[in-house]
Write a structure and sequence with these properties.
It is a single chain. By secondary structure, the chain is of the alpha/beta class. The chain folds into 2 domains: 63 residues, no CATH class; 288 residues, Alpha-Beta Barrel (TIM Barrel), CATH 3.20.20.140. Helices cover 28% and strands 29% of the residues. It contains 12 helices and 21 strands. The strands form 5 sheets. It has a 7-stranded mixed β-sheet with strand order 3-2-1-4-19-20-21. A 6-stranded parallel β-sheet has the order 5-8-9-10-11-12. The longest helix is centred in the first third of the chain and has 16 residues. The two termini are 23 Å apart. 55% of the residues are buried.
């Protein structure tokens, strides 16, 4: 039994006490006295939050998920050092052979967690079933939904999330079959209308990919995909690097969408110095904290989840509990994972240990202690 002491965030609020971890990597118990959230950062005690769950990760530390081979293990280890305890490895729009190679590289690291790395929950297939008019940083290898291709990929490595453009009839028609296969459907990289999104939601789509980016925007006479998200969504992902979305727009989304959750959309440039890196078949440049294509288009990010926490709390003014939900529980709920994203008995012991300035002191990965400064 391992015991971690500090101010532990539970679903009922903060407790000043201990979290006991059993030998199987699960939480045995959490005990302590209630602490008002406003007092948590005033005390000279460690802060213990649920480990971060990032459902949109392209890369990190110079490695891209599309590289195949052992790239995913390097990406998982890098993000674990920044508090991410579970993630969805995210692919790019690409030719079939590139996707198959990436999936084959991912498969063994989904079956077995990389040593010292975050748990890879499965794949987020971001394209190729998207709109050519809203590529963003995606290479132009779009195509309508091809279920045979999808079944082949899903058999190699499990797809947890799939981003599609709902205005394309073949994509919309496939939603129910995707749900039956256990795949969550998100709307993104789309020029679709408000009505397209509402219909897709009625068919079972349940989220929106990097809200506000690469989708038709909100106008009061043409609400677009953004309008549908703000009016109808329970879940949506958003990138809080303060480049992709203005803080005011993030706050608006938080008021409208009950279970908004944060993602990094991180690229191989995360954790690296300024310079050129790969994002699928694109070359992207990291400079001044952002990652861009040669024409200036934002191309993923260099964000890490620990910095996302600090942005939410210290820039946007969220409380620690609300920020934590955006970084863990909401994403876990979107995937239906009740054993992750919360510090309760029986759940996996995935946690981050922070000081009062929200700097990482340690990360707990399914009960395994990781020192990010070692």
């Amino acid at each position: 039994m391992r015991r971690i002491e500090g101010q532990v965030l539970t679903p009922g609020g903060f407790l000043s006490g201990t979290m006991d971890i059993a030998g199987d990597g699960r939480i045995a118990q959490v005990t302590g006295s209630p602490v008002a959230e406003g007092d948590v950062r005033k005390a000279d005690a460690r802060i213990i939050l649920p480990g971060f769950m990032d459902l949109h990760v392209h890369g990190g530390a110079g490695h891209d998920i599309m590289d195949g081979g052992d790239a995913a293990a390097h990406v998982a280890r890098f993000h674990a050092l920044h508090g991410t305890t579970s993630l969805a490895a995210t692919t790019m729009t690409a030719p079939a052979e590139d996707l198959e190679a990436a999936f084959r590289g991912l498969s063994p690291f989904i079956r077995h967690r990389p040593t010292g790395g975050a748990r890879i929950l499965g794949v987020h297939l971001e394209g190729p079933y998207i709109s050519r008019e809203r590529l963003g940083a995606q290479p132009d290898h779009t195509r309508p939904m091809a279920l045979d291709e999808l079944r082949l990929l899903h058999a190699i490595a499990p797809i947890r999330l799939l981003t599609l453009a709902p205005e394309i009839p073949a994509n919309r028609l496939a939603i129910r079959e995707l749900l039956e296969a256990g795949i969550r459907v998100q709307l993104g990289h789309t020029q679709g209308s408000y009505e397209d999104a509402v219909e897709a939601l009625s068919l079972g789509a349940s989220g929106f990919t990097h809200l506000f980016n690469a989708m038709s925007g909100l106008h009061h006479r043409a609400p677009g995909i953004v309008g549908a998200a703000l009016a109808k969504a329970e879940y949506a992902e958003i990138i809080p690097d303060l480049l992709h979305v203005h803080p005011g727009a993030i706050l608006a989304a938080l008021r409208a969408i009950p279970r908004l959750y944060c993602v990094t959309d991180s690229t191989s440039a995360a954790g690296m110095p300024d310079g050129d890196y790969r994002l699928g078949r694109h070359t992207v440049t990291k400079c001044l904290g952002g990652v861009r294509l040669p024409d200036g288009t934002l191309a993923g990010s260099a964000l890490t989840m620990d910095q996302a926490l600090r942005n939410l709390v210290d820039v946007l003014g969220l409380g620690l509990a609300e920020a934590s939900r955006c970084l863990s529980a909401n994403a876990a709920d979107h995937l239906g994972l009740q054993e992750r994203g919360r510090l309760i008995p029986g759940a996996w012991a995935d946690a981050v240990v922070l000081d009062r300035d929200l700097a990482l002191l340690g990360v707990i990965l399914e009960g395994e202690w990781l020192d990010p400064h070692a």
